[in-house]
Amino acid sequence: MILVEGLFDLAVLWQAGFRNTTCAIGTHLTPEQLSQLSDPPGRSVYLAFDQDENRAGQQAAAQLARRLQNAGVFARLVSLPLGHDPNSYFVAGASASDFAACLRQAQPL
């Protein structure tokens, strides 16, 4: 499963064929969202949050990864080029293969 922050990120990934994507509508999950992501136990979630120059998106992803891991989810952090989120990455010319490469390089917390 790929978790993104915003609806445009979700839409661009769906258009690129990444149908296992969902959106948090921000950087925090409600208890219900956390429960849904941790069922079934042992699920892998790739966090593809904004790569903000002030590191806010990266810090939020790391905090959420810890929460997910505490709930039994295998969380991995996806790195995009600095200043990009999934939507802007594709708008800048990235392809589905480019994003798939980012997923393959995703690191556990």
Q: Any descriptors?
A:
109 residues; 5-stranded mixed beta sheet; alpha/beta
Structure summarized in a few sentences:
With 109 residues, the chain is of the alpha/beta class.
The counted number of beta strands is 5
Distance between the termini: 16 Å
Strand content: 15-25%
Overall body shape: globular
**What is the arithmetic mean of pLDDT?**
93
What structural class results from the helix and strand content?
alpha/beta
Topology (elements, then pairings):
Elements: E1 2-4, H1 7-15, E2 21-23, H2 31-37, E3 44-48, H3 56-70, E4 74-77, H4 86-91, H5 96-104, E5 107-108
Parallel strand pairs: 1-2, 1-3, 3-4
Antiparallel strand pairs: 4-5
